[in-house]
Specification:
- Helices cover about 50% and strands about 15% of the residues.
- It is an alpha/beta fold.
- The strands form 6 sheets. It has a 5-stranded parallel sheet with strand order 2-1-3-4-5, sandwiched between helices. Strands 7-6-8-11-12 form a 5-stranded parallel sheet, sandwiched between helices.
- The chain is globular, with a radius of gyration of 30 Å.
- The protein starts with a helix and ends with a helix.
Length: about 600
């Protein structure tokens, strides 16, 4: 690539990034369009006894509801139980169901023809056979017409989490095409032909995905609404039971694959291939050498062929299966800390947060930078944290696109700074030292919960407008911004009055001087005091402590001008004195009305 081509590529890449950052909401707007098809109505066909056990021994409704609560999803599916074929058909004719689950003991199966009758009513309804325990698997395997009659077969074994896994699995199948196209959502391919093992593995996989996604959301301190939306971007799980099906899914979603988790032995070209997983691994890694692959087997002798093929290995019979799977997610899929390694794979640094990553990027050796960039580790780490569009930009920026490795380093650091801007520009965010840069005016910080009040709303609106409009480009010679602003929500005032028992005193007091003294004797909440201490560590310039009341701008009874404003030099060398001055000013603003 010559100098002109390189410069054009750089300009094109930065323009793409800038265009995205101007529309900083786009990640969240994308989330709204993910998972449009949901399972809301489930028809459970089971004997009276099995239905009783599900609701009283291990309450199925609680398992489903608990799973959806964990995902911060507002509406869990409704389950309707019937105990006969005729009842099932009658229900299906009277209202729509998204999913039918048939729970049956094979020796007493009274529902063998049910799937055909359901398909005659609506061929689009997914129908799953749920076996009672592992003893029934052999009968189904010998009678292949049962496998052909249902969309898939799972085994219960008394673990009600399989129901939630089935619901998520069906939703993933329904939404994967939409979600990968619109939101670049990642896909986990599970290749397993054993009913027993994929029935065990799917609940584990979904539990791990939810846990890892939840950990990232907690770290980012997102509000409830954005937590719900972020969960929609979790990786989707697709299940294949033979070599050809796995290969087909891989080629269909190869640009979105997060990893492949595969058995070693399963059917290939119609017959059982004892090393089918090893052969699949080799085929996939030729196309995508950086694809994380986890091969698992109950035969420990398969460990060496798996590792030689370039995969990780997991013993199916391990007592620590959950922990082993969790380590794979952390170390290979970008959910844990970003671990910087050299060409020999040795750890040389690690980053827990985006600021940590940017610090490490400035210091790590060139060989480590190229090691991770060439394996798409940076984009995977960003994708796991929900930075969908930026992850795609980083993924498309290959090391060969840059004239030198230092240019690549500069680009990645610049992306980190732009992500910082993306996360805060024009928003009201909880106070964070990392984002509170002196004089930037990019965002408004919230020091305590509650309504913003009149001035707080206006400051937030103007800040949002200035940062998301073309006004700066219209007047490039002028720096137009609001002062660096932090807001104490209105709830702190009402809590202050209640905590210090000032309600009656306020109503009865006739002397303003006495009232001020009583307010100054009161205590602010411990959480606010901690936030003020953190705030003052970053702020050494003069402060104006102003009111922001709920009724300040009321048309019928405006309170504008009633509250006092206090100015603080904030220049004492003693942090305790500066904190006391700030707290006194806040209490006097509270008292001034």
């Amino acid at each position: 690539m010559d100098d002109l081509q390189f410069r054009e590529a750089q300009e094109r890449r930065m323009t793409e990034l800038s265009d995205f950052l101007k529309k900083y909401k786009s990640n969240h707007e994308v989330y709204h369009d993910l998972m449009p098809r949901r399972i809301r109505e489930i028809l459970l066909v089971a004997t009276v006894y099995d239905a009783f056990v599900l609701e009283h021994d291990t309450p199925l409704s609680e398992v489903i509801f608990g799973g959806y609560t964990q995902l911060n999803l507002a509406t869990a599916p409704r389950i309707t139980s019937v105990s006969s074929t005729d009842e099932a058909i009658e229900k299906l004719k009277s209202r729509f169901f998204d999913l039918v689950i048939v729970l049956s003991r094979t020796r007493q199966m009274a529902f063998r023809n049910l799937s055909q009758r359901i398909k005659e009513i609506d061929s689009r309804i997914p129908i799953f056979l749920l076996l009672n325990d592992n003893a029934d698997i052999g009968f189904v395997s010998e009678n292949t017409y049962l496998l052909e009659s249902f969309d898939n077969v799972f085994v219960w074994n008394g673990n009600s989490e399989i129901f939630l896994a089935i619901v998520k699995y069906v939703e993933d199948r329904l939404n994967v095409a939409n979600d990968t196209k619109l939101g670049l959502v990642r896909v986990i391919l599970l290749v397993e032909d054993s009913i027993r093992y994929y029935s065990r593995y799917l609940p584990l996989l979904y539990k791990e995905i939810v846990k890892q996604t939840h950990n990232l959301i907690v770290e980012e301190n997102l509000d409830k609404m954005r937590q719900i939306l972020r969960f929609r971007a979790r990786p989707k799980v697709l299940l294949a039971s033979n070599y050809e099906e796995a290969s087909k899914i891989f080629h269909m979603y190869k640009d979105y694959l997060l990893c492949v988790i595969s058995d070693v032995s399963y059917p290939r070209e119609g017959t059982l291939d004892e090393l089918g997983g090893v052969k699949l691994t080799k085929e996939l890694l030729v196309i995508n050498p950086n694809l994380p692959v986890l091969l698992q087997s109950s035969n420990e002798g398969n460990a060496q062929p798996a590792i030689s093929a370039g995969a990780e290995f997991l013993d199916k019979n391990s007592d620590n299966l959950n922990d082993d799977l969790s380590r794979f997610f952390h170390n290979k899929l970008g959910f844990g800390d970003f671990v910087f390694r050299n060409n020999a794979g040795q750890e040389i640094a690690s980053a827990h947060t985006m600021p940590d990553l940017m610090t490490c990027l400035e210091k790590i050796p060139i060989e480590s930078l190229l090691y991770h960039a060439s394996r798409n580790h940076f984009s995977a780490w960003l994708m796991a944290r929900g930075e969908i569009q930026i992850a795609q930009i980083v993924l498309n920026a290959k090391p060969t696109d840059f004239q030198t490795a230092e240019e690549l380093r500069k680009f990645l650091i610049d992306v980190g700074h732009r992500i910082k801007d993306l996360q805060v520009t024009g928003r009201v965010i909880p106070f964070d030292e990392f984002y509170f840069a002196e004089g930037t005016g990019k965002h408004v910080s919230r020091l305590a919960e509650g309504a913003l009040g009149g001035k707080g709303r206006r400051a937030s609106f103007v800040n949002n407008f200035l940062n998301n409009s073309q006004i700066a480009e219209m007047f490039p010679e002028v720096n137009i911004r609001i002062p660096q602003t932090a807001i104490i929500g209105a709830s702190e005032f009402s809590d202050f009055v209640g905590r210090n028992k000032l309600g009656t005193f306020i109503l009865e007091s006739k002397d303003c001087a006495v009232l001020k003294r009583r307010f100054l004797m009161g205590s602010l909440s411990p959480d606010l005091i901690r936030q003020l201490e953190r705030f003052l560590k970053k702020v050494r310039y003069p402060l104006a402590i102003r009111s922001s009341g709920l009724l300040e701008d009321s048309l019928s009874q405006p309170l504008s001008g009633v509250y006092q404003t206090f100015f603080l030099p904030n220049n004492s060398p003693y942090s305790t004195l500066r904190l006391n001055h700030l707290m006194e000013a806040i209490k006097l603003v509270f008292a001034s009305v």
